[in-house]
Amino acid sequence: MTYSAVAVIWNTLHGRFYNMASCLPEEALGWRIGTASIGYMLRHNAEVEYLFAEWFFRRGLPPGLEILTSRGPAAGREPAEFMDREGLLALLRASNEHVMEAMRELPDEAWHVPVDSPMGASTPLEAVSRLLYHTGLHAGQISLIQKHARPVEPTT
To answer: Alpha-carbon distance 7 to 55, whole Å?
Structure first.
């Protein structure tokens, strides 16, 4: 019962986030305010979904997945992966499938049992609410960047 209730909410939010991302032109991925670009935030959001699946639902990271955004946007140079629109969209689709499968496999009684994680203890149900908040936060940041960090077109 818990999975079916959570899945409706998760699918709604993730669907809106993915649709927003899929409407971005590739050049927008480099737009930024401060150190975090839109492309970085898309990559980061997918990586956090993978990490939450591992930490709270005990579903391991896929082989070969490299977590590039765990130290924050100012921790190093921006790799080319943050500018590959199709690659980022594929990663968002894959991370969603991964976390959904992890949620689907969790027994109903386990949703309310605290799990220790690098973020501290949370139940899987609480972790989903944190993940929803995280996604909404980055959606707002992306909207803000789109509004204020667009390149200025020269006037003629």
So the answer is: 18
Longest dimension (CA), the chain: 65
Alpha-carbon distances, residue 88 vs 1, 9, 21, 69, 152 (angstroms)? 32, 23, 9, 13, 25
Residue 35 binned pLDDT confidence (cut-offs 50, 70, 90):
confident
Write out the E strands in the chain: 32-33, 36-37
CA distance 145 to 148: 5
Instruction: Specify the pTM.
Output: 0.91
- Band (74; pLDDT cuts 50, 70, 90): low
